[in-house]
Design brief:
The protein has a domain of 152 residues: OmpA-like domain (60s Ribosomal Protein L30, Chain: A, 2-Layer Sandwich). Helix 5 crosses helix 6. It has 289 residues and is of the alpha+beta class. It has 8 helices and 5 strands.
Length: 289
């Protein structure tokens, strides 16, 4: 047989053998079959079943700022300074509270007792001659026994105040006692010794806000101080009152009774106030005169 014909028969036999192998192996293992693309599996869980934790989208959580990069020495210095400032503020607040409490206590004691400075610490005393006790109730009740028809005593807290118009006591703008002033002070001192024997007595001078006419005084306080001193001198030299009972206060124009807008108001504010306190001077001091 010629060689060409032999090669053709061998090639045909080979082809038939390949086809037979493909048919016997089936279509699945057919190497010449085109592979079908498979859809990706669904991760969605069936209804009523929770999704696996690893399939849930993770949300980013903001982390607190890190102080790793901050100098620790600076933090210590800032913290120490803050503590010192806080301590200073606490100390100042405590000092202010103590000062306020002390001042309020002293003021309350003075007002409640109605006594001159320093007398609030003393226990109430009664005189050995059967005088009026020093309780505020009796002080107020005894005020009605004063026979001063042209004056109007008034009860103020725990003290009794007697307002005497300065125009009845002094020449205008001076500290010179008028004859009428001598008579008024004599009458008042007799009543005080009868009703409030031995009690402390404050002599308080007041004026209005009008400019001073007398060049002898450079301020209202100088004028009221001189007038209070004149009353003090009269009571200690012309009456039975002892200087240990008396003390002076010059208020100037600081404490008006009424408005200074009218002439009547200014006249009322020019005054000497005699203030009778509940406490009494020592019996031996008042009896020495």
């Amino acid at each position: 047989m010629p060689p060409c014909l032999l090669r053709e028969r061998v090639s045909h036999a080979t082809s038939m053998a390949v086809i037979a192998v493909i048919v016997a192996g089936g279509c699945v293992s057919n190497p010449f079959r085109k592979q079908e693309s498979l859809a990706p599996p669904s991760l969605e869980p069936p209804p009523g079943v929770a999704a696996p934790a690893h399939t849930v989208p993770q949300t980013s959580v903001s982390m607190p700022p890190s102080y790793a990069d901050v100098d620790g020495r600076q933090l210590e210095v800032a913290l120490g300074r803050s503590r010192e400032e806080s301590q200073l503020m606490q100390d100042e607040i405590a000092a202010l509270r103590d000062q306020l409490a002390s001042t309020s206590s002293q003021l309350a004691q003075t007002r409640a007792a109605g006594m001159p400075p320093g007398a609030a610490d003393k226990p109430p005393r009664t005189s050995n001659d059967g005088g009026i006790p020093t309780t505020p109730v009796v002080m107020q009740s005894a005020m009605t026994q004063l026979k001063l028809p042209e004056l109007q005593p008034r009860f103020d807290g725990a003290v009794v105040r007697i307002d005497i118009p300065a125009d009845r006591l002094f020449d205008d703008g001076t500290a010179n006692l008028l004859p009428e002033g001598v008579a008024v002070l004599t009458q008042v001192s007799n009543e005080l010794e009868r009703v409030y024997p031995g009690h402390f007595l404050g002599i308080e001078g007041h004026v209005d806000t009008e400019p001073l006419q007398n060049a002898s005084w450079t301020s209202p306080h100088q004028l009221t101080a001189a007038r209070s001193a004149a009353v003090f001198d009269f009571l200690t030299t012309r009456t039975s009152m002892h200087e240990s009972q008396l003390f002076l206060v010059a208020h100037g124009a600081n404490h008006p009774l009424v408005s200074n807008a009218t002439s009547a108001g200014r006249a009322r504010n020019r005054r000497i106030e005699l203030v009778i306190y509940p406490d009494r001077a020592a019996a031996n001091e008042t009896a020495a005169k």
